[in-house]
Input
Amino acid sequence: MKTYPIILERAGDGGWSAIAPGIPGLLLVADTREELLAQAPAAIMDHLEALRDDHLPVAQPGQVEFVQVAV
Output
């Protein structure tokens, strides 16, 4: 089992979206945070499979550092 970090963001309409650093083109969208987290594993697996099918590089889990920047 591999573990990929995702970054969640709450939308202005109350919905949720997420991206996975290191997995280009993957965008998750759901009405609730719980729904997003529930669909994330299958969506990541499907996306990685599509990359393999297209003979594109498949992302490997890496280390991601999160830093908050005040502006």
About this structure: Strands lie at 7-10, 16-19, 27-30.
